[in-house]
Amino acid sequence: MLTIRQYGDPVLKQPTKEVEEIDGRVAKLVGDMVETMYEAPGVGLAANQVGVQRRLFVYDIGDGPHVIINPRITEASGEWSFEEGCLSVPGLSWTIVRPSHVHLVGLDLDGNELSIDAEEYQARVFQHEVDHLDGTLLIERLDEDQRREARKILRARALAG
Predict the structure, then answer these.
(1) Is 0.90 topped by the overall pTM?
(2) Structural domain boundaries of the chain?
(3) Which of 35, 129, 140, 144 is catalytic?
(4) Which residue, 21, 54, 80, 121, shows the most beta carbons closer than 10 Å to its own?
């Protein structure tokens, strides 16, 4: 089990670096991340959420675990509102508007190119995890009033914890 970094950890605000070589260390990281994601429990986990500044994430939206290495969203369209939470901001969630359709490209664990058209829930998971890899947290997707309230709750938690 890896430790999931929480809101306030500076590693969550830093953009990640591309994975240059897919080797045994990357495979072990992916396995550990999948185990950590299930234990949390969550549906997605970006490498920087466990303190690793590499551009990859794991996810499972009900059809088994997957990994995307060096993901990029190349197209986005539509609009979909959905309540979204984050393992790095546990216990809180907000309705967030995101594109309903995305096209994501990247690599699998064998180095094969992936090209995925995703919609609604899968598209949201992809966008959420790519945001993490870009150093953007869910809280930055909130409107100003929501963000202020979220920070107030998180500060109170930090002081109590």
Answers:
(1) yes
(2) 10-160
(3) 129
(4) 54
